[in-house]
TrEMBL record:
Alphabetized GO MF terms: RNA binding; rRNA (guanine-N2-)-methyltransferase activity; rRNA (guanine-N7-)-methyltransferase activity
Gene3D superfamilies noted in UniProt: 3.30.2130.30, Vaccinia Virus protein VP39
Domain of life: Bacteria
InterPro entries: DNA_methylase_N6_adenine_CS, RlmKL-like_Mtase, RlmKL-like_Mtase_CS, RlmL_1st, SAM-dependent_MTases_sf, THUMP_dom
Database matches in PANTHER family: RIBOSOMAL RNA LARGE SUBUNIT METHYLTRANSFERASE K/L (PTHR47313), RIBOSOMAL RNA LARGE SUBUNIT METHYLTRANSFERASE K_L (PTHR47313:SF1)
Name of the protein: Class I SAM-dependent RNA methyltransferase
UniProt keyword Zinc present: no
Domain THUMP: 58-156
Pfam families: RlmL_1st, THUMP, UPF0020
Sorted UniProt keywords: Methyltransferase, Transferase
Source species of the chain: Paenibacillus montanisoli
Keyword Methyltransferase: yes
Length: 387
């Protein structure tokens, strides 16, 4: 169990960000594919990846991959896997699936075949004809069919990794926590630089930035399906959590501010900030974007401007973006990063982005516009040594 193929699933466009996260965690043996990064690890790495990954959706175990042009091939390939090594006799093991460009197009039928094959394998091992699936342990099996090849995985995560545990209420069109973290990681922000979000909504970007600034593992406040699996000992989870707690750097000063014109959004943000433990570190203000005046130099504006559903009127949305551009003119040393659905963002804000990325917030296609300002000057020694 020390050489498993693990999969960190990634929202479209964020594969390279997830790969970099894994690299920083020490997982150099990896393969980047559309929507996922495959890497090698053992049982302890299931714990670490779930606790630490900020921009991935889930951590899966790749159980098998084989050609599956017929239901018989799908059945036999699934039955060949040693499912009893992982799944206890009375555990729940639902099957989910998807199919693309394959002869086996009926996903419900494929799910049924996989379930039947797993049951047959477990019947021969446990010597029983019926599985009650009622002990509370959950092993979600997924069958991915692509180009007549089947991949079988086990989901170690459960509810998606964006479920950090600090956000109970959300605004009308919430930004996913994983996407907010990606926006911060794709900027050049460092904890010694100011950060301002003038459309903070429920406070997700400031909170994710604070967690990055203090090196807080995003999974520390939640549980995962695989925590109840007998194959992964409590000791491994305790070690992973202890490592994460020891890595926190909560003595670093933070200059993070969020503002919004909507008082109800700020109430939700304040509750989330308090729940996340940053009530003293993150400042919240009720102010229109036209009156935004961030303090400090060489800061980063990182924001998800309201558009469509959040304002209810595209004209109001364009006005807010135009005001953001005007406010940024008075911040010559600041960088600006904005995720938006607007296709006319550069025209409206009056600037051409230095870089633009296509990203998806859930299923909503967006663009991430990056306007790079100057980097802070490096501190020079007062009396540099002569060569």
């Amino acid at each position: 169990m020390d050489n498993l193929q693990l999969i960190a699933t990634a929202p479209m466009g964020l594969e390279a960000v997830v790969a970099r996260e894994l690299m920083d965690l020490g997982y150099k043996d990896q393969k980047v594919e559309n929507g996922r990064v495959i890497f090698r690890g053992g049982l302890k790495d299931i714990c670490r990846a779930n606790l630490w990954l900020r921009t991935s959706d889930r951590v899966l175990i790749k159980m098998a991959e084989f050609p599956a042009r017929t239901f018989e091939e799908l059945f036999e390939g699934t039955k060949a896997v040693n499912w009893p090594d992982w799944i206890p006799e009375d555990a729940e093991f639902p099957v989910e699936g998807r199919s693309h460009k394959s002869q086996l197009t009926s996903v419900p039928a494929c799910q049924s075949i996989v379930k039947k094959a797993v049951v047959e394998k477990m019947k021969s091992s446990y010597g029983t004809e019926w599985f009650h699936e009622d002990n509370g342990q959950r092993f979600v099996i997924e069958v991915w069919l692509l180009n007549d090849n089947a991949m079988l995985t086990l989901d170690t995560t459960g509810p998606g990794l964006h479920k950090r545990g600090y956000r109970k209420l959300v605004t009308e069109a919430p930004l996913k926590e994983t996407m907010a973290a990606a926006m911060v990681l794709l900027s050049r922000w460092r904890p010694e630089r100011p950060l301002y979000d003038p459309f903070c909504g429920s406070g997700t970007i400031p909170i994710e930035a604070a967690m990055i600034g203090w090196n807080i593992a995003p999974g520390l406040r939640r549980t995962f399906n695989s925590e109840s699996w007998p194959i992964i000992s409590e000791e491994l989870w305790e070690q992973a959590r202890e490592e994460a707690f020891d890595s926190v750097k909560d003595d670093i000063p933070l200059q993070i501010t969020g503002s919004d014109i909507d008082p109800q959004a700020l109430e939700i943000a304040a509750a989330a900030v308090k729940k996340a433990g940053f009530a003293r570190e993150i400042k919240l203000q009720q102010v229109a974007v036209s009156r935004v005046k961030p303090e400090g130099d060489y800061g980063c504006i990182i924001t998800n401007p309201p558009y469509g559903a959040r304002l209810g009127d595209e004209d109001d949305a364009e006005k807010a973006i135009r005001q953001l551009g005007l406010s940024a003119l008075y911040l010559p040393t600041w960088s600006l990063f904005a995720l938006t659905q607007s296709r006319t963002f550069e025209e409206t804000i009056g600037r051409k982005a230095d870089k633009k990325r296509k990203l998806f917030n859930g299923r909503i296609e967006c663009a991430y516009y990056q306007f790079f300002g100057p980097l802070p000057p490096r501190n020079k020694p007062e009396n540099p040594a002569r060569p």
